[in-house]
């Protein structure tokens, strides 16, 4: 009988090793609160597009700069983390990257939606973004959402504007770009009829790059932007929310926004939010 029992014991041992290995891998890769992990590592890994001025972009030396970058550094300091590692990503990959642990947090103007809240957790808002229609400077036939029916509409890939154009504009031909600069440039060249983008960002990019585009009509919507991170990190969320609240209260967020957003005080914009949006 011993020649039967021995393989069984070996097989059982192998199963036990495999199972324990899986449990260790799972516990090291995805369990536990993000706050303790970033404090233990001494580094906060922050995802942003690095191509979304003035919110975040690369300067002449290739270093990330902008509103989101300064906010990220200040948040890291306030939660007790000395170093910030900026990870280049995009709106299509933010949620997947957070869930896979490729970065700890997204600070890149990510709009809060019910669909996204099913997959990641969000901080309290740290910015508000008004979305507008942009057209070529020579275009006079588009003034409203109704005028976009059947038109070629440029959007940044993976953004809420892409979903909005697909669902709210009948017969729209939605054309995606990796970032707003590319979309607005193509719009100015006549390769799209309009683009849906932040009014502030679109105007900023047009001025900085000499693009022949303009905002038209009223704001389509005001989007609430927050920081996203892995679900189940209650302590991390608590500390991030506390840091944002302190930055609002002591004037730090006002200082950062005025530096990067042409004098705009983001705190005043946040005060306009309805209670359910906050």
TrEMBL record:
Residues 43-263 form the Ionotropic glutamate receptor C-terminal domain. Keywords: Signal. Residues 43-264 form the Solute-binding protein family 3/N-terminal domain. Residues 1-25 form the signal peptide. Pfam families: SBP_bac_3. PROSITE patterns: PROKAR_LIPOPROTEIN. InterPro entries: Iontro_rcpt_C, Solute-binding_3/MltF_N. GO terms for cellular component: membrane. GO terms for molecular function: ligand-gated monoatomic ion channel activity. Gene3D superfamilies: Periplasmic binding protein-like II (3.40.190.10). CDD domains: PBP2_Cystine_like_1 (cd13713). This is ABC transporter substrate-binding protein. It comes from Prauserella flavalba.
């Amino acid at each position: 009988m011993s020649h039967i029992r021995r393989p069984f014991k070996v097989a059982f041992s192998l199963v036990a090793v495999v199972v324990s290995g899986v449990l260790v891998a799972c516990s090291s890769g995805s369990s536990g609160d993000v706050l303790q992990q970033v404090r233990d590592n001494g580094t906060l890994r922050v995802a942003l597009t690095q191509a979304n001025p003035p919110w975040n972009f690369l300067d002449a030396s290739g270093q990330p700069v902008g509103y989101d970058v300064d906010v990220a550094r200040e948040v890291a300091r306030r939660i007790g983390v000395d170093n910030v590692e900026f990870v280049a990503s995009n709106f299509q990959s933010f949620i997947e990257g957070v869930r896979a642990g490729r970065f700890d947090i997204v600070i890149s103007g990510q709009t809060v939606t019910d669909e996204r809240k099913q997959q990641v957790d969000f901080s309290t808002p740290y910015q508000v973004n008004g979305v507008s229609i942009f057209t070529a400077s020579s275009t006079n036939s588009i003034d409203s959402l109704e005028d976009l029916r059947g038109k070629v509409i440029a959007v940044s890939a993976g953004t809420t504007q892409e979903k909005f154009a697909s669902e709210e504009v009948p017969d729209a031909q939605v054309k995606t770009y990796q970032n707003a600069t590319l979309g607005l440039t193509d719009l100015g060249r006549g390769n799209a009829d309009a683009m849906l983008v932040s009014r502030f960002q679109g105007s900023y990019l047009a001025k900085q790059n000499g693009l022949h585009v303009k905002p038209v009509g009223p704001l389509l919507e005001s989007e609430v932007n927050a920081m996203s991170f892995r679900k189940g990190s209650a302590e991390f969320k608590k500390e991030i929310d506390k840091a944002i609240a302190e930055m609002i209260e002591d004037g730090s967020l006002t200082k950062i926004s005025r530096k990067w957003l042409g004098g705009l005080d983001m705190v005043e914009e946040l005060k306009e939010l309805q209670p359910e949006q906050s």
